[in-house]
Amino acid sequence: MTLSSAESPMGVIMGKWRFIFVLLIILSVGSFAVAHAQRYAVVDMDYMLSKMPEYARVDTTLELMTVKWQQQIDSVSHYADSLRKDFNAEQYMLADELKAKRMLQIQNAETEVRNLRTSYFGYQVELFKRREQLVQPIQNKIYRVIQQLSIKYGWDFVLDKSAGTALIFSDPKLNKSDMILETMGIKTK
C-alpha cells in the first residue's frame, strides 16, 4: 500500500503549515479591517488656545504675575547683595558679635531669595497652581466640544499633536481644530 502525498509525513506537515499560513492571512486581514474601521481626529491644543481671547487674557495675567514676582525676588536679592557688599567693606572694623549678627542677616536675606524663587517658580508651586487654576476652565471648554463632536462624528480617538505625543505625521484634513473653534463661536481666519 502506498501513501498519498497528503498522508505522507511530509504532506501532513505541509498541510499544517498551509493551514497556519491561511489562518495568519485571515487574522491579518481581519485585524487590518478592524484597525481601519476606527475613526480618529487630530487637534492642535496650542493652536486652539492661541485663538481664544480668554486664553490671551490668562496668558497676560500670568505674565504680569511672573514679572511682579521676579521684581520681588530681585528686590530681596539686591538687598542681600548690598548687605554682603557692606559687610565685606566693613568686616575688618566690626566686633565679632556684630560680624555674626550681620552674617546672620545676610544668610536670612539669601534664604528668603531662595524660598521666594522656589515658592513662585518651583514645581507644583504658585505659578504652576495659578496656571492650572486659570487655564483649566478654558481647556475643559475645549474638551467638552471635542467630546460632543466625537460623539456626533463617531471619532474613536482624538489625538493632540501639540501634547508631545509621538505623532510623526497627520493628514491636515484630519485636523479638526478649526471645526472645534468654530463650534465654540471663535473665528479662525
Summary keywords:
2 domains, mainly alpha, 4% strand, 6 helices, 2 strands, two-stranded parallel ribbon, 189 residues
Describe the structure.
It contains 6 helices and 2 strands, in the order H-E-H-H-H-H-E-H. With 189 residues, it is mainly alpha-helical. A two-stranded parallel sheet has the order 1-2.
Helical proportion, percent range? over 70%
Largest beta sheet: strand ordering: 1-2
How many β-strand stretches?
Answer: 2
Number of domains: 2
Number of distinct helices: 6
How far apart the termini lie comes to 84 Å
Mean pLDDT: 80
Question: Which blocks of ≥5 consecutive residues have pLDDT under 50?
Answer: none
Helix-strand category: mainly alpha
Succession of helices and strands: HEHHHHEH
Strand content: under 5%
**Major beta-sheet overview:** 2 strands, parallel
Morphology: elongated
Computed over alpha carbons, the radius of gyration is 33 Å
SSE layout and pairing:
Elements: H1 9-37, E1 40-43, H2 45-50, H3 53-90, H4 96-121, H5 126-153, E2 157-160, H6 177-183
Parallel strand pairs: 1-2
Helix pairs in contact: 3-4, 3-5
In short:
The chain is mainly alpha-helical and 189 residues long.
